[in-house]
């Protein structure tokens, strides 16, 4: 029924966003629209890093999206860098996530788990051990999301090559746990200055063994992780998030870094993945080296499904989908502020603005 006061027909999808509401076939998963819930850290886990009951409603309320991607989820206990971030390495965590996936499926949604190792951004305050990194290169400044506890980043230690193989196995175990928890797939977090990103970049990877040096060796760890995870879940249920431009404050961009990304991306073309997903907060100064925005860089080298992210409003997202620049678009802050974001975009209802304190209201 049309609204009499405004004359706006809320039953009709505005033409300038209609591309967002096309269905999308994702390797046997039928996405009901092109809208994706971006992985957003919630800092709400209970002791034991178990997701809370509040996570059930958080994800169920957003199940109208074509695809949900969870907050970043730790693959092991010693890679925690922020307060109250959930894991997927214990039986209790798996059982709690099962309640989330069941709720999302009952609401007609699809949900992937984002698998995460923070590398040098881990902190002894949370995990009791020193962080690890490809090479002994520190992060400067203070830790974010500590809720009143002031923590300085500490020096990491360089991983032994045997330890790298163990972490690859831990990613595989986390994927197996995600499958047991009922997830429809997984996304490997290879963006935003975390462990996979640290291997890809020359600033943090100064190794001279099989995992450092030329672009192929810098990309090897990420490729090993993808292959190990795909062996557990099937390649078409595995996504990979990348931020080929540097993440503000956590990683420096060196022009030669693009060579490692190009090698990795081209290898992904042969692996029939679910998608690649553009990471957030890119360093605009690096765009000249990428030859445009990060999504344009990925599109030039990747033939599969691409999820755009970062700074989109609905008309811009719909236009990029219509033009083939991206296939899907993920929304983060606007989805936190508007659990009914899909309905609002479909009907033209104005969005509630995001405010930082909204994160403190999550449970």
Account of the protein in words:
With 363 residues, the chain is α/β, with parallel strands linked by helices. It has a domain at 37-276 and 283-292: Alpha-Beta Barrel (TIM Barrel). It is 34% helix and 14% strand. The chain has an eight-stranded parallel β-barrel, surrounded by five helices. A two-stranded antiparallel ribbon has the order 1-2. Helix 1 (54-60) links the parallel strand 3 (35-37) and strand 4 (67-74). Helix 4 (161-180) packs parallel to helix 7. The protein is globular, with a radius of gyration of 20 Å.
Strand order of the largest sheet: 3-4-5-8-9-10-11-12
Low-confidence stretches: 1-6
Main beta sheet: strand number and arrangement? 8 strands, parallel, barrel
CATH class of the domain at 37-276 and 283-292: Alpha Beta
Cα-based radius of gyration, to the nearest Å: 20 Å
Strand content: 5-15%
Structural class, please? alpha/beta
Backbone shape? globular
Number of separate strands: 12
Question: What is the count of helical runs?
Answer: 14
CATH superfamily of the domain at 37-276 and 283-292: Aldolase class I
Query: What is the CATH topology assignment of the domain at 37-276 and 283-292?
Result: TIM Barrel
Could you state the order of secondary-structure elements as H and E?
Answer: EEEHEHEHEEHEHHHEHEHHEHEHHH
Give the rounded overall mean pLDDT. 92
CA-CA gap between termini: 36 Å
């Amino acid at each position: 029924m049309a609204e009499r006061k405004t004359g706006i027909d809320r039953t009709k999808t505005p033409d300038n966003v209609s591309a967002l509401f096309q269905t999308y076939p994702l390797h046997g998963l039928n996405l009901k629209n092109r809208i994706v819930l971006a992985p957003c850290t919630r800092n709400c886990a209970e002791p034991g890093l178990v997701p809370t009951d509040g996570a059930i409603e958080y994800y169920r309320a957003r199940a109208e999206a074509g695809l949900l991607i969870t907050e970043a989820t730790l693959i092991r206990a010693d890679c925690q860098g922020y307060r109250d971030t959930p894991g997927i390495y214990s039986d209790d965590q798996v059982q709690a996530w099962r309640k989330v996936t069941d709720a999302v499926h009952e609401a007609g949604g699809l949900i992937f788990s984002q698998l995460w190792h923070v590398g040098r951004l881990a902190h002894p305050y949370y995990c009791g051990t020193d962080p690890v990194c490809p090479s002994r290169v520190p992060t400067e400044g203070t830790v974010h999301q500590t809720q009143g506890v002031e923590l300085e980043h500490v020096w990491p230690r360089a991983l032994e090559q045997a330890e790298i193989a163990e972490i690859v196995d831990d990613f595989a175990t986390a994927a197996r746990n995600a499958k047991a928890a009922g997830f429809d797939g997984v996304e490997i977090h290879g963006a935003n200055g975390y462990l996979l990103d640290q291997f890809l970049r020359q600033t943090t990877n100064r190794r001279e063994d099989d995992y450092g040096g030329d672009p192929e060796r810098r990309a090897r760890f990420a490729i090993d992780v993808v292959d190990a995870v795909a062996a557990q879940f099937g390649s078409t249920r595995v996504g990979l998030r990348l931020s080929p431009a540097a993440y503000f404050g956590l990683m420096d961009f060196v022009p030669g870094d693009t060579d490692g990304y190009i090698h990795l991306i081209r290898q992904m073309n042969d692996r029939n993945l679910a998608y690649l997903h553009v990471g957030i907060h890119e360093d605009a100064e690096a765009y000249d080296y990428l030859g445009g925005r990060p999504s344009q860089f990925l599109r030039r080298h990747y033939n599969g499904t691409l999820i755009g992210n970062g700074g989109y409003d609905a008309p811009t997202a719909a236009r990029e989908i219509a033009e083939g620049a991206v296939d899907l678009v993920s929304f983060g802050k606007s989805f936190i502020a508007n659990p009914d974001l899909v309905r609002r975009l479909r009907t033209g209802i104005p969005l509630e603005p995001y405010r930082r304190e909204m994160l403190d209201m999550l449970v």
